[in-house]
Amino acid sequence: MVMQTLQIRLTKGLIEEISKLVTRGIYPSTSECVRDAVRRLITGTGKMEVPEKEVKEVQEKVAKEVEKEIKDQFQKPKGTVDFYPKEMAVRKTIFRKLMACAERYSFKQIESPAFESFALLSKKEGEEIRQQIFTLEQKGKESFGLRFDLTVPAARMFIEKQKQLPKPVKWFYLSRMWRYEAPQRGRLREFYQFSAEIFGSSKPEADAEIISLAIDALKSTGLTEKEFFVKINNRKILEGLLLDVIDKSKMDDAMRIIDKRSKITEEEFDEELKKAGIKEIDKINKIISMKDIEEVKKLRLNGVGKEGLDELNSILKLLKNKKDFIRVDLSTARGLAYYTGTVFEIYDIDERYRALAGGGRYDKMIEMFKGQPTPATGFAVGYATLSLLLENKDLIPKVDLGPDYYIAIIGDAKEKAREIIEKLREKYKVEIDLSQRNLGNQLKYANAIGAKKVMFIGPDELKQGIVKVKDMASGNEGSMKIEELQ
Amino acid sequence: MVMQTLQIRLTKGLIEEISKLVTRGIYPSTSECVRDAVRRLITGTGKMEVPEKEVKEVQEKVAKEVEKEIKDQFQKPKGTVDFYPKEMAVRKTIFRKLMACAERYSFKQIESPAFESFALLSKKEGEEIRQQIFTLEQKGKESFGLRFDLTVPAARMFIEKQKQLPKPVKWFYLSRMWRYEAPQRGRLREFYQFSAEIFGSSKPEADAEIISLAIDALKSTGLTEKEFFVKINNRKILEGLLLDVIDKSKMDDAMRIIDKRSKITEEEFDEELKKAGIKEIDKINKIISMKDIEEVKKLRLNGVGKEGLDELNSILKLLKNKKDFIRVDLSTARGLAYYTGTVFEIYDIDERYRALAGGGRYDKMIEMFKGQPTPATGFAVGYATLSLLLENKDLIPKVDLGPDYYIAIIGDAKEKAREIIEKLREKYKVEIDLSQRNLGNQLKYANAIGAKKVMFIGPDELKQGIVKVKDMASGNEGSMKIEELQ
Question: Which domains can be identified in chain A, with CATH numbers?
Answer without folding.
Answer: 12-72 (no CATH), 85-392 (3.30.930.10), 405-484 (3.40.50.800)
